[in-house]
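TICKET #2291
ISSUE: user wants both folds in one file
ATTACHMENT 1:
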Amino acid sequence: MKPTTNPFHPDLQRAARLLPNVTVTRPVLAVVRFLGRFQRKPRVPVDVAVEVEDVRVPGPAGAPPVRVRTYRPRSVQGPTPALLWIHGGGYIVGQPEQDDVLCLELARELGILVASVDYRLAPEHPFPAPLEDCYAALRWLFSQAGTLGILPERIAIGGASAGGGLTAALAQLAHDREDVRPVFQLLVYPMLDDRTTTRTDIDGTNHRAWNQGSNVFGWRSYLGREPGGAQVPVHAVPARREDLSGLPPAWLGVGTCDLFHDEDLVYARRLEAAGVPCDVVVVPGAFHGFDIITRGARVARDFRGAFTAALRRALFPAPGAAEQAKAG
Protein backbone atom coordinates (compact mmCIF):
# COMPACT_ATOMS: atom_id res chain seq x y z
CA MET A 1 0.00 0.00 0.00
CA LYS A 2 1.48 3.34 -1.08
CA PRO A 3 1.84 5.99 1.62
CA THR A 4 -0.31 9.05 1.15
CA THR A 5 1.19 12.51 1.15
CA ASN A 6 -0.38 14.97 3.58
CA PRO A 7 -1.26 18.09 1.57
CA PHE A 8 -1.03 20.43 4.56
CA HIS A 9 1.98 22.27 5.88
CA PRO A 10 3.58 20.34 8.77
CA ASP A 11 2.72 23.17 11.18
CA LEU A 12 -0.94 22.99 10.15
CA GLN A 13 -1.65 19.27 9.89
CA ARG A 14 -3.12 18.84 13.37
CA ALA A 15 -5.41 21.87 13.01
CA ALA A 16 -6.52 20.72 9.56
CA ARG A 17 -7.44 17.33 10.97
CA LEU A 18 -9.49 18.83 13.82
CA LEU A 19 -11.30 21.59 11.95
CA PRO A 20 -14.92 20.69 11.17
CA ASN A 21 -16.17 21.01 7.61
CA VAL A 22 -19.13 23.35 8.14
CA THR A 23 -21.05 25.04 5.34
CA VAL A 24 -22.57 28.39 6.23
CA THR A 25 -26.36 28.49 5.84
CA ARG A 26 -28.92 30.83 7.39
CA PRO A 27 -29.28 28.71 10.57
CA VAL A 28 -25.49 28.41 10.88
CA LEU A 29 -25.14 32.16 10.32
CA ALA A 30 -27.58 32.84 13.15
CA VAL A 31 -25.55 30.66 15.52
CA VAL A 32 -22.23 32.23 14.50
CA ARG A 33 -23.60 35.73 15.00
CA PHE A 34 -25.04 34.80 18.38
CA LEU A 35 -21.69 33.46 19.54
CA GLY A 36 -19.96 36.51 18.08
CA ARG A 37 -21.80 38.77 20.50
CA PHE A 38 -19.65 37.43 23.30
CA GLN A 39 -16.51 38.51 21.46
CA ARG A 40 -17.34 42.19 21.80
CA LYS A 41 -15.85 43.14 25.14
CA PRO A 42 -17.46 45.87 27.27
CA ARG A 43 -14.06 47.50 27.53
CA VAL A 44 -11.34 48.11 24.99
CA PRO A 45 -8.16 45.99 25.30
CA VAL A 46 -5.68 47.24 27.87
CA ASP A 47 -2.30 47.78 26.27
CA VAL A 48 0.36 49.97 27.82
CA ALA A 49 1.85 50.74 24.39
CA VAL A 50 -1.32 51.34 22.35
CA GLU A 51 -4.40 53.44 23.01
CA VAL A 52 -7.61 51.88 21.69
CA GLU A 53 -10.73 53.96 21.07
CA ASP A 54 -14.09 53.43 19.38
CA VAL A 55 -15.33 56.43 17.41
CA ARG A 56 -18.36 57.10 15.23
CA VAL A 57 -17.65 58.73 11.89
CA PRO A 58 -20.06 60.13 9.29
CA GLY A 59 -21.54 57.31 7.22
CA PRO A 60 -22.58 57.27 3.56
CA ALA A 61 -25.35 59.64 2.49
CA GLY A 62 -28.61 58.58 4.14
CA ALA A 63 -26.91 55.86 6.19
CA PRO A 64 -26.06 55.70 9.90
CA PRO A 65 -22.61 56.61 11.27
CA VAL A 66 -19.87 54.03 10.97
CA ARG A 67 -18.03 52.73 14.02
CA VAL A 68 -14.27 52.78 13.63
CA ARG A 69 -11.94 51.20 16.19
CA THR A 70 -8.62 53.04 16.33
CA TYR A 71 -5.29 51.79 17.67
CA ARG A 72 -2.73 54.53 18.34
CA PRO A 73 0.82 53.98 19.66
CA ARG A 74 1.26 56.05 22.81
CA SER A 75 4.97 56.71 22.36
CA VAL A 76 4.96 57.98 18.77
CA GLN A 77 5.55 61.69 18.36
CA GLY A 78 4.45 63.68 15.34
CA PRO A 79 2.37 62.66 12.32
CA THR A 80 2.41 58.95 11.46
CA PRO A 81 1.28 56.78 8.55
CA ALA A 82 -2.04 54.96 8.92
CA LEU A 83 -3.74 51.73 7.91
CA LEU A 84 -7.47 51.29 7.35
CA TRP A 85 -8.09 47.64 8.24
CA ILE A 86 -11.19 45.71 7.05
CA HIS A 87 -12.10 42.51 8.89
CA GLY A 88 -13.09 39.27 7.20
CA GLY A 89 -16.17 37.09 7.54
CA GLY A 90 -17.49 36.25 4.09
CA TYR A 91 -19.32 39.61 3.90
CA ILE A 92 -21.83 38.20 6.40
CA VAL A 93 -20.19 38.05 9.85
CA GLY A 94 -17.44 39.73 11.81
CA GLN A 95 -16.54 42.87 13.72
CA PRO A 96 -13.37 44.85 14.46
CA GLU A 97 -12.88 43.13 17.83
CA GLN A 98 -11.96 39.87 16.12
CA ASP A 99 -8.74 41.49 14.88
CA ASP A 100 -7.78 43.32 18.09
CA VAL A 101 -4.58 41.32 18.52
CA LEU A 102 -3.44 41.88 14.93
CA CYS A 103 -4.29 45.59 14.92
CA LEU A 104 -2.55 46.12 18.26
CA GLU A 105 0.54 44.36 16.93
CA LEU A 106 0.63 46.41 13.72
CA ALA A 107 0.18 49.69 15.57
CA ARG A 108 2.83 48.78 18.14
CA GLU A 109 5.39 47.29 15.78
CA LEU A 110 5.09 49.82 12.94
CA GLY A 111 4.29 52.90 14.99
CA ILE A 112 1.22 53.74 12.91
CA LEU A 113 -2.43 54.51 13.51
CA VAL A 114 -4.61 51.51 12.64
CA ALA A 115 -8.33 52.11 12.08
CA SER A 116 -10.60 49.05 11.83
CA VAL A 117 -14.01 49.66 10.28
CA ASP A 118 -17.25 48.08 11.54
CA TYR A 119 -19.07 47.93 8.20
CA ARG A 120 -22.65 46.74 7.77
CA LEU A 121 -23.10 43.08 6.91
CA ALA A 122 -25.04 41.15 4.28
CA PRO A 123 -27.61 39.73 3.71
CA GLU A 124 -29.40 42.47 5.67
CA HIS A 125 -27.15 45.06 4.03
CA PRO A 126 -25.99 43.80 0.62
CA PHE A 127 -23.71 45.66 -1.79
CA PRO A 128 -23.01 48.56 -1.87
CA ALA A 129 -23.60 49.17 1.86
CA PRO A 130 -20.47 47.38 3.22
CA LEU A 131 -18.20 48.97 0.63
CA GLU A 132 -19.70 52.44 1.11
CA ASP A 133 -19.13 52.15 4.87
CA CYS A 134 -15.47 51.36 4.21
CA TYR A 135 -15.23 54.30 1.83
CA ALA A 136 -16.78 56.58 4.46
CA ALA A 137 -14.14 55.44 6.97
CA LEU A 138 -11.37 56.04 4.44
CA ARG A 139 -12.66 59.53 3.66
CA TRP A 140 -12.77 60.26 7.38
CA LEU A 141 -9.11 59.30 7.74
CA PHE A 142 -8.14 61.66 4.95
CA SER A 143 -10.39 64.55 6.00
CA GLN A 144 -9.31 64.35 9.65
CA ALA A 145 -5.65 63.61 9.00
CA GLY A 146 -4.49 66.75 10.80
CA THR A 147 -6.65 66.12 13.86
CA LEU A 148 -5.69 62.43 13.94
CA GLY A 149 -2.01 63.19 13.55
CA ILE A 150 -1.52 61.07 10.42
CA LEU A 151 0.13 61.65 7.07
CA PRO A 152 -2.54 61.73 4.31
CA GLU A 153 0.03 60.72 1.71
CA ARG A 154 0.83 57.59 3.75
CA ILE A 155 -2.55 55.93 4.27
CA ALA A 156 -2.77 52.25 3.30
CA ILE A 157 -5.80 49.97 3.15
CA GLY A 158 -5.86 46.27 3.96
CA GLY A 159 -7.98 43.33 4.97
CA ALA A 160 -8.33 39.56 5.13
CA SER A 161 -10.74 37.26 3.27
CA ALA A 162 -13.90 39.27 2.55
CA GLY A 163 -12.04 42.19 4.10
CA GLY A 164 -9.40 41.67 1.44
CA GLY A 165 -12.11 41.67 -1.20
CA LEU A 166 -13.50 44.92 0.17
CA THR A 167 -9.96 46.32 0.21
CA ALA A 168 -9.52 45.55 -3.49
CA ALA A 169 -12.95 47.02 -4.29
CA LEU A 170 -12.17 50.08 -2.16
CA ALA A 171 -8.95 50.67 -4.09
CA GLN A 172 -10.96 50.59 -7.31
CA LEU A 173 -13.71 52.83 -5.96
CA ALA A 174 -11.22 55.39 -4.63
CA HIS A 175 -9.45 55.40 -8.00
CA ASP A 176 -12.66 56.07 -9.88
CA ARG A 177 -14.04 58.75 -7.55
CA GLU A 178 -10.68 60.55 -7.47
CA ASP A 179 -11.39 61.89 -4.00
CA VAL A 180 -8.92 59.99 -1.81
CA ARG A 181 -5.84 58.02 -2.82
CA PRO A 182 -4.53 55.21 -0.60
CA VAL A 183 -0.86 54.53 -1.09
CA PHE A 184 -0.99 50.73 -0.77
CA GLN A 185 -3.38 47.77 -0.63
CA LEU A 186 -2.75 44.74 1.57
CA LEU A 187 -4.70 41.71 0.32
CA VAL A 188 -4.65 38.78 2.74
CA TYR A 189 -6.18 35.72 1.02
CA PRO A 190 -8.85 38.04 -0.44
CA MET A 191 -12.35 37.00 -1.54
CA LEU A 192 -12.29 38.54 -5.02
CA ASP A 193 -14.35 36.61 -7.57
CA ASP A 194 -17.94 35.38 -7.36
CA ARG A 195 -17.34 33.23 -10.45
CA THR A 196 -15.38 30.76 -8.33
CA THR A 197 -18.78 29.60 -7.04
CA THR A 198 -19.63 28.21 -10.48
CA ARG A 199 -16.48 26.13 -10.90
CA THR A 200 -17.08 22.38 -11.06
CA ASP A 201 -13.40 21.42 -11.25
CA ILE A 202 -12.58 22.31 -7.66
CA ASP A 203 -11.78 19.44 -5.32
CA GLY A 204 -12.65 20.82 -1.90
CA THR A 205 -11.11 17.93 0.03
CA ASN A 206 -8.28 20.07 1.36
CA HIS A 207 -10.24 23.26 2.00
CA ARG A 208 -10.72 24.33 5.60
CA ALA A 209 -12.58 27.20 7.34
CA TRP A 210 -14.30 28.32 4.09
CA ASN A 211 -15.67 25.89 1.51
CA GLN A 212 -17.53 26.19 -1.76
CA GLY A 213 -20.97 25.96 -0.13
CA SER A 214 -20.14 28.83 2.23
CA ASN A 215 -18.71 30.76 -0.70
CA VAL A 216 -22.00 30.50 -2.59
CA PHE A 217 -23.93 31.65 0.47
CA GLY A 218 -21.56 34.56 1.12
CA TRP A 219 -21.59 35.88 -2.42
CA ARG A 220 -25.35 35.39 -2.78
CA SER A 221 -25.87 37.37 0.42
CA TYR A 222 -23.54 40.17 -0.63
CA LEU A 223 -24.74 40.52 -4.21
CA GLY A 224 -28.43 39.98 -3.45
CA ARG A 225 -28.58 37.57 -6.38
CA GLU A 226 -27.11 34.28 -7.51
CA PRO A 227 -23.34 34.65 -7.91
CA GLY A 228 -21.51 33.93 -11.14
CA GLY A 229 -24.04 35.57 -13.45
CA ALA A 230 -23.21 37.36 -16.68
CA GLN A 231 -23.18 40.80 -15.05
CA VAL A 232 -22.64 42.29 -11.61
CA PRO A 233 -22.78 45.90 -10.40
CA VAL A 234 -19.64 47.98 -10.86
CA HIS A 235 -17.27 47.68 -7.85
CA ALA A 236 -19.20 44.70 -6.41
CA VAL A 237 -16.70 42.05 -7.52
CA PRO A 238 -13.08 43.23 -7.76
CA ALA A 239 -11.98 40.46 -10.13
CA ARG A 240 -14.63 41.45 -12.68
CA ARG A 241 -13.03 44.84 -13.33
CA GLU A 242 -11.43 44.89 -16.77
CA ASP A 243 -8.94 47.74 -16.33
CA LEU A 244 -6.74 47.44 -13.25
CA SER A 245 -4.27 50.15 -14.22
CA GLY A 246 -3.67 53.06 -11.90
CA LEU A 247 -4.45 51.17 -8.69
CA PRO A 248 -2.17 51.35 -5.61
CA PRO A 249 0.72 48.90 -5.31
CA ALA A 250 -0.33 45.67 -3.62
CA TRP A 251 0.80 42.73 -1.52
CA LEU A 252 -1.18 39.50 -1.82
CA GLY A 253 -0.78 36.35 0.25
CA VAL A 254 -2.65 33.03 0.05
CA GLY A 255 -2.14 29.34 0.78
CA THR A 256 -2.23 26.48 -1.69
CA CYS A 257 -5.10 24.80 0.22
CA ASP A 258 -7.23 27.95 0.17
CA LEU A 259 -10.40 28.06 -1.93
CA PHE A 260 -9.31 31.52 -3.12
CA HIS A 261 -5.86 30.40 -4.26
CA ASP A 262 -6.58 30.40 -7.99
CA GLU A 263 -8.66 33.58 -8.15
CA ASP A 264 -6.09 35.40 -6.04
CA LEU A 265 -3.14 34.48 -8.23
CA VAL A 266 -5.06 35.41 -11.37
CA TYR A 267 -5.83 38.83 -9.88
CA ALA A 268 -2.20 39.34 -8.85
CA ARG A 269 -1.00 38.52 -12.37
CA ARG A 270 -3.55 40.92 -13.83
CA LEU A 271 -2.37 43.70 -11.52
CA GLU A 272 1.20 43.17 -12.66
CA ALA A 273 0.13 43.08 -16.31
CA ALA A 274 -1.64 46.41 -15.78
CA GLY A 275 1.53 47.97 -14.41
CA VAL A 276 0.56 47.74 -10.72
CA PRO A 277 3.38 46.34 -8.57
CA CYS A 278 2.11 43.33 -6.63
CA ASP A 279 4.24 41.22 -4.30
CA VAL A 280 2.85 37.70 -3.96
CA VAL A 281 3.42 35.20 -1.15
CA VAL A 282 2.05 31.67 -1.61
CA VAL A 283 2.23 29.44 1.45
CA PRO A 284 2.44 25.72 0.58
CA GLY A 285 -0.11 23.62 2.45
CA ALA A 286 -1.88 26.57 4.11
CA PHE A 287 -5.67 26.68 4.35
CA HIS A 288 -7.96 29.70 4.64
CA GLY A 289 -7.43 31.71 7.81
CA PHE A 290 -4.49 29.55 8.91
CA ASP A 291 -2.65 32.51 10.44
CA ILE A 292 -5.58 33.13 12.80
CA ILE A 293 -6.55 29.54 13.56
CA THR A 294 -2.95 28.47 14.23
CA ARG A 295 -1.68 31.82 15.38
CA GLY A 296 1.36 30.51 17.25
CA ALA A 297 2.62 28.25 14.46
CA ARG A 298 5.90 29.23 12.82
CA VAL A 299 4.32 29.36 9.37
CA ALA A 300 1.64 31.74 10.68
CA ARG A 301 4.22 34.00 12.31
CA ASP A 302 6.26 34.06 9.12
CA PHE A 303 3.18 34.97 7.09
CA ARG A 304 2.30 37.87 9.41
CA GLY A 305 5.92 38.93 9.31
CA ALA A 306 5.83 39.02 5.52
CA PHE A 307 2.84 41.33 5.26
CA THR A 308 4.02 43.46 8.17
CA ALA A 309 7.30 43.98 6.32
CA ALA A 310 5.38 44.87 3.16
CA LEU A 311 3.41 47.49 5.10
CA ARG A 312 6.61 48.90 6.54
CA ARG A 313 8.16 49.24 3.07
CA ALA A 314 5.03 50.95 1.72
CA LEU A 315 4.48 53.33 4.64
CA PHE A 316 8.13 54.06 5.42
CA PRO A 317 9.82 54.06 2.00
CA ALA A 318 13.57 54.36 1.93
CA PRO A 319 14.91 57.74 0.77
CA GLY A 320 14.95 57.84 -3.00
CA ALA A 321 12.79 54.70 -3.34
CA ALA A 322 10.09 56.49 -5.35
CA GLU A 323 12.63 57.91 -7.78
CA GLN A 324 14.29 54.52 -8.16
CA ALA A 325 10.92 52.87 -8.87
CA LYS A 326 10.13 55.44 -11.57
CA ALA A 327 13.55 54.97 -13.12
CA GLY A 328 13.11 51.19 -13.14
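ATTACHMENT 2:
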Amino acid sequence: MHIRDLDLNLLVLFDALLRERSVTRAAAEVGLSQGAMSHGLNRLRTFFEDPLFVKTSAGMQPTEKGLLLGTTVTEIMTALRQRVVSQARFEPATARRTFVISMTDMGELVFLPPLIRRLRKVAPNCTVRSVQVPLEQIEATLAAGDADLALGSVRAAPDGLFQQQLFLHTFVTMVSVHNKAIGKSISRAQFESMPQIVVSLTGRASAAYDSAFDEYGIKRNIYLTTPHFLVVPHLIDAQPDLIATVPLELANVFARLGTIRIVPPPVSLPPFALRQHWHPRFHDDPANIWLRHLIKETFDRYPDIEDNEA
Protein backbone atom coordinates (compact mmCIF):
# COMPACT_ATOMS: atom_id res chain seq x y z
CA MET A 1 0.00 0.00 0.00
CA HIS A 2 1.15 3.52 -0.79
CA ILE A 3 1.34 6.32 1.79
CA ARG A 4 -1.22 8.26 -0.24
CA ASP A 5 -3.75 5.62 0.80
CA LEU A 6 -3.35 6.63 4.44
CA ASP A 7 -5.15 9.71 5.72
CA LEU A 8 -2.44 11.23 7.92
CA ASN A 9 -5.13 12.79 10.09
CA LEU A 10 -5.80 9.27 11.34
CA LEU A 11 -2.42 9.31 13.08
CA VAL A 12 -3.83 12.01 15.38
CA LEU A 13 -6.61 9.61 16.33
CA PHE A 14 -4.15 6.75 16.83
CA ASP A 15 -1.99 8.94 19.09
CA ALA A 16 -4.99 9.97 21.18
CA LEU A 17 -6.18 6.37 21.57
CA LEU A 18 -2.70 5.26 22.54
CA ARG A 19 -2.65 7.77 25.40
CA GLU A 20 -6.28 7.71 26.52
CA ARG A 21 -7.09 3.99 26.00
CA SER A 22 -10.70 5.05 25.57
CA VAL A 23 -12.64 5.87 22.41
CA THR A 24 -14.79 8.36 24.32
CA ARG A 25 -11.91 10.25 25.92
CA ALA A 26 -9.80 10.16 22.74
CA ALA A 27 -12.74 11.54 20.74
CA ALA A 28 -13.17 14.40 23.22
CA GLU A 29 -9.45 15.23 23.04
CA VAL A 30 -9.35 15.56 19.26
CA GLY A 31 -12.77 17.22 19.04
CA LEU A 32 -14.71 14.42 17.32
CA SER A 33 -17.91 12.61 18.13
CA GLN A 34 -17.61 9.07 19.46
CA GLY A 35 -19.08 7.78 16.20
CA ALA A 36 -16.52 9.66 14.08
CA MET A 37 -13.74 8.34 16.33
CA SER A 38 -14.96 4.75 15.90
CA HIS A 39 -15.14 5.26 12.13
CA GLY A 40 -11.57 6.55 12.11
CA LEU A 41 -10.39 3.56 14.13
CA ASN A 42 -12.04 1.20 11.64
CA ARG A 43 -10.19 2.92 8.78
CA LEU A 44 -6.90 2.47 10.64
CA ARG A 45 -7.68 -1.20 11.20
CA THR A 46 -8.41 -1.66 7.51
CA PHE A 47 -5.20 0.06 6.42
CA PHE A 48 -2.93 -1.84 8.84
CA GLU A 49 -4.93 -5.09 8.62
CA ASP A 50 -4.95 -5.40 12.39
CA PRO A 51 -7.39 -4.57 15.22
CA LEU A 52 -4.72 -2.22 16.68
CA PHE A 53 -6.82 -1.66 19.84
CA VAL A 54 -9.07 -4.21 21.59
CA LYS A 55 -11.60 -3.64 24.36
CA THR A 56 -10.59 -5.07 27.75
CA SER A 57 -11.60 -4.50 31.36
CA ALA A 58 -8.70 -2.01 31.55
CA GLY A 59 -9.91 -0.07 28.52
CA MET A 60 -8.81 -0.11 24.86
CA GLN A 61 -5.45 -1.88 24.88
CA PRO A 62 -3.10 -1.90 21.88
CA THR A 63 -2.32 -5.14 20.12
CA GLU A 64 1.25 -6.20 19.50
CA LYS A 65 1.18 -4.41 16.15
CA GLY A 66 -0.48 -1.44 17.77
CA LEU A 67 2.34 -1.18 20.32
CA LEU A 68 4.94 -1.46 17.56
CA LEU A 69 3.26 1.26 15.51
CA GLY A 70 2.70 3.31 18.63
CA THR A 71 6.39 3.98 19.11
CA THR A 72 6.71 5.36 15.60
CA VAL A 73 3.45 7.33 15.73
CA THR A 74 4.47 8.94 19.03
CA GLU A 75 7.80 10.02 17.49
CA ILE A 76 6.01 11.43 14.45
CA MET A 77 3.46 13.36 16.49
CA THR A 78 6.14 14.74 18.83
CA ALA A 79 8.18 15.94 15.84
CA LEU A 80 5.10 17.53 14.27
CA ARG A 81 4.21 19.37 17.46
CA GLN A 82 7.74 20.60 18.18
CA ARG A 83 9.07 21.26 14.67
CA VAL A 84 6.04 21.98 12.51
CA VAL A 85 2.99 23.09 14.48
CA SER A 86 5.09 25.27 16.79
CA GLN A 87 6.16 27.28 13.75
CA ALA A 88 2.57 28.38 13.17
CA ARG A 89 2.86 30.76 16.11
CA PHE A 90 5.58 32.40 18.12
CA GLU A 91 5.47 32.13 21.90
CA PRO A 92 7.92 34.76 23.20
CA ALA A 93 7.80 33.58 26.82
CA THR A 94 9.20 30.15 25.92
CA ALA A 95 10.93 30.71 22.56
CA ARG A 96 14.67 30.18 22.21
CA ARG A 97 16.17 31.90 19.21
CA THR A 98 18.56 34.64 18.17
CA PHE A 99 17.16 37.67 16.37
CA VAL A 100 19.62 39.18 13.90
CA ILE A 101 19.19 42.89 13.18
CA SER A 102 21.14 44.98 10.70
CA MET A 103 21.95 48.46 11.99
CA THR A 104 24.77 50.99 12.11
CA ASP A 105 26.77 51.77 15.23
CA MET A 106 24.43 54.75 15.64
CA GLY A 107 21.53 52.34 15.49
CA GLU A 108 23.10 50.27 18.23
CA LEU A 109 23.29 53.31 20.49
CA VAL A 110 19.73 54.41 19.77
CA PHE A 111 17.87 51.12 19.26
CA LEU A 112 19.58 48.47 21.37
CA PRO A 113 19.18 49.77 24.95
CA PRO A 114 15.35 50.10 24.90
CA LEU A 115 14.94 47.06 22.65
CA ILE A 116 17.02 44.80 24.88
CA ARG A 117 15.14 46.10 27.91
CA ARG A 118 11.81 45.08 26.37
CA LEU A 119 13.10 41.81 24.93
CA ARG A 120 14.49 40.55 28.23
CA LYS A 121 11.10 41.12 29.85
CA VAL A 122 8.85 39.44 27.30
CA ALA A 123 11.20 36.93 25.63
CA PRO A 124 13.78 36.04 28.29
CA ASN A 125 15.28 33.11 26.38
CA CYS A 126 15.84 35.00 23.13
CA THR A 127 19.06 36.78 22.25
CA VAL A 128 20.07 39.50 19.77
CA ARG A 129 22.90 39.74 17.26
CA SER A 130 23.65 43.07 15.62
CA VAL A 131 25.27 43.15 12.18
CA GLN A 132 26.32 46.03 9.95
CA VAL A 133 25.47 45.27 6.33
CA PRO A 134 26.49 47.47 3.38
CA LEU A 135 23.50 49.16 1.77
CA GLU A 136 23.87 47.26 -1.50
CA GLN A 137 23.76 43.93 0.36
CA ILE A 138 20.74 44.57 2.60
CA GLU A 139 18.13 43.03 0.29
CA ALA A 140 20.15 39.85 -0.27
CA THR A 141 20.91 39.55 3.43
CA LEU A 142 17.24 39.85 4.39
CA ALA A 143 16.15 37.52 1.57
CA ALA A 144 18.58 34.83 2.73
CA GLY A 145 17.34 35.09 6.30
CA ASP A 146 20.80 36.15 7.50
CA ALA A 147 19.10 39.11 9.19
CA ASP A 148 15.51 39.39 10.38
CA LEU A 149 15.22 43.17 10.03
CA ALA A 150 17.20 46.21 8.94
CA LEU A 151 16.74 49.31 11.09
CA GLY A 152 17.70 52.85 10.20
CA SER A 153 17.44 55.55 7.56
CA VAL A 154 17.77 53.37 4.50
CA ARG A 155 16.66 56.05 2.06
CA ALA A 156 17.71 54.04 -1.00
CA ALA A 157 16.14 50.79 0.22
CA PRO A 158 15.20 48.38 -2.59
CA ASP A 159 11.58 48.62 -3.73
CA GLY A 160 11.07 44.91 -3.02
CA LEU A 161 11.40 45.31 0.74
CA PHE A 162 8.56 46.00 3.14
CA GLN A 163 9.14 48.98 5.40
CA GLN A 164 7.49 50.65 8.37
CA GLN A 165 8.23 54.05 9.85
CA LEU A 166 9.20 54.01 13.51
CA PHE A 167 9.83 57.69 14.26
CA LEU A 168 11.23 60.90 12.80
CA HIS A 169 14.58 62.32 13.80
CA THR A 170 15.95 65.83 13.47
CA PHE A 171 19.52 67.00 13.03
CA VAL A 172 21.70 69.08 15.32
CA THR A 173 25.31 70.23 15.25
CA MET A 174 27.83 68.97 17.79
CA VAL A 175 30.68 71.19 18.95
CA SER A 176 33.38 70.67 21.55
CA VAL A 177 32.75 71.95 25.07
CA HIS A 178 36.17 73.56 24.72
CA ASN A 179 35.20 75.50 21.59
CA LYS A 180 34.79 79.04 22.90
CA ALA A 181 34.24 80.56 19.46
CA ILE A 182 30.72 79.13 19.31
CA GLY A 183 28.11 80.19 21.80
CA LYS A 184 24.55 78.90 22.10
CA SER A 185 24.20 79.00 18.33
CA ILE A 186 26.44 78.73 15.29
CA SER A 187 26.35 81.29 12.51
CA ARG A 188 26.31 80.38 8.87
CA ALA A 189 29.79 81.86 8.42
CA GLN A 190 31.14 79.75 11.29
CA PHE A 191 29.39 76.64 10.00
CA GLU A 192 30.89 77.05 6.52
CA SER A 193 34.41 77.83 7.71
CA MET A 194 34.90 75.24 10.46
CA PRO A 195 36.26 71.79 9.51
CA GLN A 196 33.52 69.18 9.65
CA ILE A 197 33.18 65.44 10.20
CA VAL A 198 30.65 63.71 7.96
CA VAL A 199 29.43 60.18 8.62
CA SER A 200 28.63 58.20 5.47
CA LEU A 201 28.19 54.44 5.23
CA THR A 202 29.30 54.56 1.60
CA GLY A 203 32.51 56.41 2.39
CA ARG A 204 31.39 59.44 0.39
CA ALA A 205 30.01 62.74 1.66
CA SER A 206 26.46 61.92 0.65
CA ALA A 207 24.47 61.94 3.88
CA ALA A 208 20.71 62.18 3.66
CA TYR A 209 20.69 65.83 4.71
CA ASP A 210 23.18 66.98 2.04
CA SER A 211 20.41 68.11 -0.25
CA ALA A 212 19.05 70.43 2.47
CA PHE A 213 22.41 72.18 2.76
CA ASP A 214 22.58 72.44 -1.02
CA GLU A 215 19.15 74.09 -1.16
CA TYR A 216 20.42 76.86 1.12
CA GLY A 217 23.65 77.15 -0.85
CA ILE A 218 25.72 76.22 2.19
CA LYS A 219 29.21 74.94 1.42
CA ARG A 220 30.67 72.72 4.11
CA ASN A 221 34.36 72.47 4.84
CA ILE A 222 34.49 68.66 5.05
CA TYR A 223 37.70 67.53 6.70
CA LEU A 224 36.89 63.87 7.47
CA THR A 225 34.40 61.38 6.06
CA THR A 226 33.96 58.21 8.12
CA PRO A 227 31.48 55.31 8.19
CA HIS A 228 31.52 55.25 12.00
CA PHE A 229 29.46 57.44 14.31
CA LEU A 230 31.16 56.37 17.54
CA VAL A 231 34.48 58.01 16.66
CA VAL A 232 32.93 61.45 16.16
CA PRO A 233 32.75 62.75 19.78
CA HIS A 234 36.26 61.54 20.52
CA LEU A 235 37.66 63.33 17.47
CA ILE A 236 35.82 66.52 18.39
CA ASP A 237 37.18 66.26 21.93
CA ALA A 238 40.72 65.82 20.59
CA GLN A 239 40.34 68.57 17.95
CA PRO A 240 37.98 71.22 19.41
CA ASP A 241 37.63 73.13 16.16
CA LEU A 242 35.94 70.16 14.45
CA ILE A 243 32.13 70.06 14.27
CA ALA A 244 29.61 67.46 13.05
CA THR A 245 25.90 67.45 12.21
CA VAL A 246 24.17 64.28 13.38
CA PRO A 247 20.70 63.05 14.42
CA LEU A 248 19.47 64.55 17.70
CA GLU A 249 19.03 61.14 19.36
CA LEU A 250 22.68 60.32 18.78
CA ALA A 251 23.88 63.76 19.86
CA ASN A 252 21.99 63.36 23.14
CA VAL A 253 23.88 60.13 23.83
CA PHE A 254 27.21 61.80 23.08
CA ALA A 255 26.35 64.90 25.14
CA ARG A 256 26.12 62.69 28.23
CA LEU A 257 29.83 61.97 27.83
CA GLY A 258 30.50 65.60 28.75
CA THR A 259 32.86 66.29 25.85
CA ILE A 260 30.45 67.83 23.33
CA ARG A 261 27.45 70.15 23.39
CA ILE A 262 24.56 70.62 21.02
CA VAL A 263 23.64 73.70 18.99
CA PRO A 264 21.04 74.07 16.22
CA PRO A 265 22.46 74.13 12.69
CA PRO A 266 22.36 77.52 10.92
CA VAL A 267 19.48 76.36 8.69
CA SER A 268 16.38 74.31 9.44
CA LEU A 269 16.94 70.75 8.27
CA PRO A 270 13.92 68.55 7.50
CA PRO A 271 13.39 65.50 9.72
CA PHE A 272 14.13 62.04 8.37
CA ALA A 273 12.38 58.79 9.12
CA LEU A 274 13.85 55.84 10.98
CA ARG A 275 12.28 52.69 9.58
CA GLN A 276 12.41 48.94 9.90
CA HIS A 277 12.73 46.91 6.70
CA TRP A 278 12.05 43.24 6.02
CA HIS A 279 11.88 40.89 3.05
CA PRO A 280 8.58 39.59 1.60
CA ARG A 281 9.79 36.01 2.21
CA PHE A 282 9.37 36.58 5.94
CA HIS A 283 6.36 38.88 5.88
CA ASP A 284 4.09 36.16 7.33
CA ASP A 285 6.70 34.50 9.54
CA PRO A 286 5.27 34.49 13.11
CA ALA A 287 8.59 35.30 14.79
CA ASN A 288 9.32 38.11 12.35
CA ILE A 289 5.81 39.52 12.79
CA TRP A 290 6.20 39.44 16.56
CA LEU A 291 9.60 41.17 16.43
CA ARG A 292 8.28 43.90 14.12
CA HIS A 293 5.36 44.57 16.44
CA LEU A 294 7.65 44.68 19.47
CA ILE A 295 9.98 47.19 17.80
CA LYS A 296 7.07 49.33 16.57
CA GLU A 297 5.54 49.42 20.04
CA THR A 298 8.89 50.18 21.65
CA PHE A 299 9.68 53.15 19.43
CA ASP A 300 6.18 54.36 18.61
CA ARG A 301 6.53 57.34 20.99
CA TYR A 302 10.29 57.75 20.83
CA PRO A 303 12.05 59.41 22.60
CA ASP A 304 9.45 59.03 25.41
CA ILE A 305 10.23 55.33 25.60
CA GLU A 306 10.10 55.03 29.36
CA ASP A 307 6.56 56.47 29.34
CA ASN A 308 5.63 54.13 26.50
CA GLU A 309 6.74 51.10 28.50
CA ALA A 310 4.90 52.10 31.64
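RESOLUTION: both attachments delivered.
EXTRA DETAIL ON ATTACHMENT 2: DSSP finds twelve helices and twelve strands in the chain.
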